[in-house]
Structure formats: structure tokens, C-alpha cells
Amino acid sequence: MQHASRTLKNGTRINLVVGKTEIPALLNDNASSRALIEKLPYSVRMHRYEHDYCGVMDGPLPYDQQDVRSGWLNGDIAFAIHGNYFTILFKDEELSGEFDGIVNLGILRSPLSVMDSLPADITVVIKLENPAAIDAQPTTR
Asked: What Gene3D superfamilies is this protein classified in (predicted)?
């Protein structure tokens, strides 16, 4: 299993909305991200843990086995296949290699410190930034 890496091409700009806080993000172009985009706007209840916010989706996202990784990079948005978890990972990437079954959906496009301003229990509404706009430029971070 490959470790986390980050190269996004043809990303779709979204916002993660928590109350009055909008967190810009970019979804990649894999099967899981495309399936999530089809569900938008989508809400998920999440709880803050040591290195992420995590919530259970109402069903699994499809994924290609080649997209399954171990670990993450801080700022990743991911789907954990062993429980239908939608997760926003914002710290401890150096310890993340022990976690497997992760499909990267995209990345946050804001400083990770925004995650520190949120309460422990949140509802995130995931929505397209501009329903007609899809980035044509590759993004690498």
C-alpha cells in the first residue's frame, strides 16, 4: 500500500461550511470525489479527535483500489473505507503511516489553524464553491 501523496489535477473547488465559517477546499478527480460531488450539497456530523474531524457518511463512496493509501498529509480531506468515514485531517501526518484504508478526496485551501477555531462537535455542509466552475489548472501542494 502506498503512503499519502498530494498532486491534484482538474480539481473541483468546494466550501466546507461550519456555521458561519467557510473553509475553501479542492476535491481531486478520483471515483470517490466524483461520487461525493454528485451528492452535493451534503451534510455530515463530525467530532474532533486528536488529529482530525471525523464523521460517518450515510453510505460508502466507490473507490479504486489504486487510490487506497496509508497515512495522510496535514490538510487532506479523505474517505476511510473501513467505516464510511469522511475526515478532515489537520495534524500528525508524521504519525499517520500506521493508518490504512484512506482514500484522499482533496485538500483544504486555507490555513490549518481554522480547524482550531471550531467546536468539538460540528455539522459540515459540503457544497460547490461555484456550481459551474471546475478548475482546469493542476494544483500541487
From this structure: 2.40.100.20
